[in-house]
From TrEMBL:
<feature type="transmembrane region" description="Helical">
    <location>
        <begin position="166"/>
        <end position="183"/>
    </location>
</feature>
<feature type="transmembrane region" description="Helical">
    <location>
        <begin position="138"/>
        <end position="154"/>
    </location>
</feature>
<protein>
    <submittedName>
        <fullName>Purine-cytosine permease family protein</fullName>
    </submittedName>
</protein>
<dbReference type="Pfam" id="PF02133">
    <property type="entry name" value="Transp_cyt_pur"/>
</dbReference>
<feature type="transmembrane region" description="Helical">
    <location>
        <begin position="311"/>
        <end position="329"/>
    </location>
</feature>
<feature type="transmembrane region" description="Helical">
    <location>
        <begin position="377"/>
        <end position="395"/>
    </location>
</feature>
<feature type="transmembrane region" description="Helical">
    <location>
        <begin position="335"/>
        <end position="356"/>
    </location>
</feature>
<feature type="transmembrane region" description="Helical">
    <location>
        <begin position="236"/>
        <end position="257"/>
    </location>
</feature>
<feature type="transmembrane region" description="Helical">
    <location>
        <begin position="31"/>
        <end position="53"/>
    </location>
</feature>
<feature type="transmembrane region" description="Helical">
    <location>
        <begin position="263"/>
        <end position="283"/>
    </location>
</feature>
<dbReference type="InterPro" id="IPR001248">
    <property type="entry name" value="Pur-cyt_permease"/>
</dbReference>
<comment type="similarity">
    <text>Belongs to the purine-cytosine permease (2.A.39) family.</text>
</comment>
<keyword id="KW-0812">Transmembrane</keyword>
<dbReference type="InterPro" id="IPR030191">
    <property type="entry name" value="CodB"/>
</dbReference>
<feature type="transmembrane region" description="Helical">
    <location>
        <begin position="59"/>
        <end position="82"/>
    </location>
</feature>
<keyword id="KW-1133">Transmembrane helix</keyword>
<feature type="transmembrane region" description="Helical">
    <location>
        <begin position="195"/>
        <end position="215"/>
    </location>
</feature>
């Protein structure tokens, strides 16, 4: 049966299909820029201003922590986009080389869990913003957003091109208008008198955590990049600039409502065109939930390669819609603390191992049954432990256990120590050492069926 041009330019239903290389810098840049502007970010900046397990920051400290954390986190996202652009493989398939075919199921399952969580929170915040703007029952907004999200995942590359051509322009106008309105209002409460700089690195870790949640999905999109260089720069610059802008606008809104995260949208709606601007951002927020649902499906395909991603997307979209009907936004900051501890050291392992692999001239093995590499998993666990000992976060039971362990061993981390940077470096160094100890492979390792992108 003949295949139409539009079908050839879309993602194949299964992993063994062709990989279109149709995304340029503007396509990818618009996608990442839109991901950086999030309704969750406006209220989520509270996780930076009031980091879990650390003293609250002043506004000045929170702004600096936002800039530093976003710069670090977005650079990490850019690095994680490179393997997909080089191999044409999605993120979890890339990990077959790092951990082995079977052991790559571990991060795949964890990624599925975190993406379902992110997708759920996105529907919750869409419903919250939509209800404030136009009213109506919350459940109706949740269901509507869930349906739209799921439909968008059926043609993912078409979604990315739509973002570049139409949505990005409307979002830029809306954010600029809201920023102008908020920064010209008299401040309702001086948040700067409520904190200090002592929790700076904990706040920085929170900003990093928001960005690095995209690390385990970046290659799902960069695999369609025409060039490796544009995959890196579009993610790093596009995402970094807009997350900083989003967080700073969120701080301005919080200053008008006394730091009440539940009321963060109220001063935006007070603007003459605030309802329209917020509606644009609410509709656009479906690109966040789209990315989470689509990447959940692609991650699941690492476990079941012949599964149709469209069927998986329908099932996952239905699941997060049901979950969003019973979850509140209050669980968001706790969720972030756990995310950072898992995926920052994962990237560290990848970078550390890649340095040794490059020196040895070793090709990648992305086959389903690639040899297991338990030492790389161990390096990842070491990085996770380091992160949790420095910053246990505020998750019930989980954080309490790490705090108890820290007290038991007499470890009191200094305030200047960043959990993200330290765990990244430790995991990378341990992975490099383990990789150097592994025996050289005599046979060249198979790559993916997809051709590599242009450097």
């Amino acid at each position: 049966m003949a295949v139409s041009a539009s079908e050839r330019d879309e993602v194949a239903p299964t992993l063994d299909g062709p990989v279109p290389r149709s995304l340029g810098f503007l396509d990818q840049g618009a996608f990442w820029a839109n991901l950086g502007v999030s309704l969750l970010g406006f209220a989520g900046v509270l996780a930076v201003l009031q980091p879990a397990g650390a003293p609250p920051l002043t506004v000045a400290a929170a702004v600096v922590a936002t800039v530093v954390g976003t710069a670090i986190g977005s650079a990490m996202v850019g690095l994680s986009a490179i393997p997909g652009a080089r191999t044409g493989a999605p993120a979890m398939v890339v990990l077959r080389d790092l951990f082995g075919g079977v052991l790559s199921w571990i991060p795949s399952v964890l990624n599925v869990v975190q993406l379902i969580g992110w997708g759920t929170f996105e529907l919750v915040v869409i419903a919250q913003a939509g209800t404030l703007a136009l009213g109506g029952p919350t459940w109706a907004w949740v269901v509507g957003a869930g349906v739209v999200t799921t439909l968008l995942t059926l043609r993912p590359l078409g979604m990315l091109r739509l973002l570049r051509r139409v949505v990005t322009i409307l979002v830029a106008i809306s954010v600029a208008y809201l920023a102008w309105w908020l920064f010209t209002r008299p401040t309702g409460a001086d948040l700067g008198d409520r904190g200090s700089w002592s929790g700076f690195w904990a706040g920085t870790d929170a900003a990093i955590a928001v960005a690095v949640s995209w690390i385990p999905v970046a290659s799902d999109y960069s695999r369609h990049s025409k060039r490796v260089s544009t995959a890196f720069t579009s993610a790093t610059i596009g995402y970094g600039v807009t997350q900083v802008l989003c967080f700073v606008v969120g701080l301005a809104a919080l200053s008008l409502v006394g730091g009440d995260g539940d009321a963060v949208f109220a001063p935006m709606l007070a603007a003459p065109l605030g309802v329209l601007a917020l509606l644009v951002l609410t509709v656009r927020e479906t690109d966040q939930s789209f990315a989470n649902v689509y990447s959940t499906a692609v991650s699941a395909q690492n476990l079941v390669p012949r599964a149709d991603r469209r069927v998986l997307s329908l099932a996952i979209g239905a699941l997060i819609t049901v979950l969003a009907l019973g979850v509140t936004i209050d669980d968001y900051a706790v969720f972030l603390a756990v995310i950072g501890s898992v995926f920052v050291p994962l990237l560290g392992v990848g970078v550390g191992e890649a340095l040794v692999a490059h020196r040895r001239g070793r090709a990648m093995d992305l086959s389903r049954w690639a040899p297991s590499r338990p030492l790389m998993v161990l390096a990842w666990v070491v990085g996770l432990v380091v992160y949790q000992l420095i910053n246990p976060g505020g998750a019930p039971v989980w954080s309490d256990a790490w705090s108890a362990l820290r007290e038991a061993i007499g470890f009191a981390p200094p305030s200047w120590l960043s959990a993200s940077l330290t765990s990244f470096l430790v995991a990378g160094l341990v992975a490099a050492a383990f990789a150097a100890l592994e025996p050289r492979r005599s046979a060249p390792r198979a790559s993916t069926a997809a051709g590599a992108a242009t450097p």
